[in-house]
From TrEMBL:
EC code: 6.3.4.13
Top-level taxon of the source organism: Bacteria
MF (Gene Ontology): ATP binding; metal ion binding; phosphoribosylamine-glycine ligase activity
Cofactor(s) the record lists: Mg(2+); Mn(2+)
Name this polypeptide is given: Phosphoribosylamine--glycine ligase
Pathway in which the depicted protein is active: Purine metabolism; IMP biosynthesis via de novo pathway; N(1)-(5-phospho-D-ribosyl)glycinamide from 5-phospho-alpha-D-ribose 1-diphosphate: step 2/2
Gene Ontology terms describing biological process: 'de novo' IMP biosynthetic process; purine nucleobase biosynthetic process
Family of the protein in this entry: Belongs to the GARS family.
Coiled-coil ranges per UniProt: none
Domain annotation ATP-grasp: ranges: 107-313
Keywords assigned by UniProt, alphabetized: ATP-binding, Ligase, Nucleotide-binding, Purine biosynthesis
Catalytic activity: 5-phospho-beta-D-ribosylamine + glycine + ATP = N(1)-(5-phospho-beta-D-ribosyl)glycinamide + ADP + phosphate + H(+)
Length: 426
């Protein structure tokens, strides 16, 4: 198969590494890719959200399967464009991708399908939103209704913080169009986990689960980010619990989407809160998570490309998804200044030294080559340093040893990824 993988982040580097292992693969193209994916296939200078450009590339390279990595091309309609061009695509239609593109749409689907989720209200103007939080009190969760690259959610511990989030999004426009309307939810309490499944129509096949660490600072302090690290599988959320969560929170959604005439095909990522009364849905995403994908895919033993092809064909009944019993961890190295304005241009050395260590994988995200051919930082989240081990402690030790050998003075990272999970193990 000739495959076009869309995206340029650490998730796409991990996906490219898994796809490259497939005996079904004839050629792999990545658009736009990064220096890490360049070692696994052919990078092509087409933006991930340039749907016409991606279709032209796919036609030119006689692509058999398009695999969208991030949400932007899906919300922009790449699956619809692929269908029109007669090219298979392992992702949902633009209408179905509204599960991620609109928080309001997701909440309406949950209500119609009887899926447990937090009580919510939508607001299109700042004044009534501010009045609501003053009346309701805190903690509350303020969410930009549209796509905000993982930065559109504020868990406000007090009314002043909620007011600031509303003002930032709706009055000051810090998130652009994404924050013109907001959803305000009750704050769910418990452990947050990420659940992943391949879906086609009303069929869902479990991929697995991971636990992300969203805030920038140790001890879950500071602002939310796109994710600073992940462990897989989460402590206390094994396969039986994952399958039960699919029955409760994913399969009813698939039935409701089919009833609406917008069946979902692709990867669903359900963010869950494990509350005292059971799992509740926080949000749906319509692709693999980042950095959860990196932690998940290094445990994958079956053929990712075969599974993605089955998704695109709507033939999931006999899909083979197998993971090792090992634990895994990803530790994100971000650029100083993230999640604000990151410091870019610093040279990154000794990734190869880290990858030579036992069971260590380093996936690149915000990197590029400078004029001298040096690898330099070019974004906020720059590297995901990952490792597997027979125990989470072993995986964690290996990952942090690898982090320490990477020579990048501008790099920052959390020192406590996986500690909470280890403490929960007792």
């Amino acid at each position: 198969m000739r495959v076009l993988l869309v995206g340029s982040g650490g998730r796409e580097h991990a996906m490219a590494a898994a796809i490259a292992r497939s005996p079904l693969l004839d050629a792999l193209f990545i658009a736009p890719g990064n220096p890490g994916t360049a070692a696994l296939g052919t990078n092509c200078p087409v933006r991930a959200d340039d749907v016409p450009g991606l279709i032209a590339l796919a036609q030119r390279e006689r692509i058999d399967l398009v695999v969208p990595g991030p949400e932007a091309p899906l919300v922009a309609g790449i699956a619809d464009a692929c269908a029109k061009a007669g090219i298979a695509c392992a992702g949902p239609t633009q209408a179905a991708a509204a599960l991620e593109g609109s928080k309001t749409f997701t909440k309406e689907v949950c209500d119609a399908a009887g899926i447990p989720t937090a009580r919510w209200e939508r607001f299109d103007a700042a004044a009534p939103a501010l009045e609501y939080v003053r009346r309701h009190g805190a903690p509350v969760v303020v969410k930009a209704d549209g796509l905000a690259a993982g930065k559109g959610v504020v868990v406000a511990q007090d009314v002043a913080e909620a007011e600031q989030a509303i003002t930032d999004m709706m009055t000051d426009g810090t998130l652009g169009q994404a924050g013109h309307s907001v959803v305000i939810e009750d704050c769910l309490m418990g452990d947050e986990v990420s659940l992943f499944a391949f879906c086609a129509g009303e069929t869902a096949v479990l991929i697995g689960a991971a636990q992300d660490h969203k805030r920038i600072g140790d001890g879950d302090t500071g602002p939310n980010t796109g994710g600073m690290g992940a462990v897989s599988p989460p402590t206390g959320f094994g396969r039986a619990q994952q399958e039960a969560a699919l029955d409760l929170l994913v399969r009813p959604m698939l039935r409701e989407m089919a009833r609406r005439g917008t069946p979902f095909t692709g990867i669903i990522f359900a963010g869950l809160m494990l509350t005292r009364t059971g799992p509740q849905l926080i949000e749906y995403n319509v692709r693999l998570g980042d950095p959860e994908a990196q932690a998940l895919l290094i445990r994958l033993e079956s053929d990712l490309l075969a599974a993605l092809a089955a998704v695109a064909q709507g033939k999931l009944e006999h899909t083979d998804i197998r993971f090792s019993s090992q634990s895994s961890i990803s530790v994100v190295m971000a650029a100083r200044g993230y999640p604000g304005t990151p410091v870019t241009g610093g040279v990154i050395r000794d990734i190869a030294v880290a990858e030579a260590m036992p069971d260590v994988h380093v996936f690149q995200a915000g990197t590029k080559r400078d004029a001298a051919g040096e690898l330099v930082a070019a974004g906020g989240r720059v590297l995901a340093v990952c490792a597997t081990g027979d125990t989470l402690q072993q995986a964690r030790d290996r990952a942090y040893e690898a982090v320490k050998v990477i020579d990048w003075p501008d790099g920052i990272y959390r020192h406590d990824i996986g500690l909470r999970a280890l403490n929960a193990q007792g």
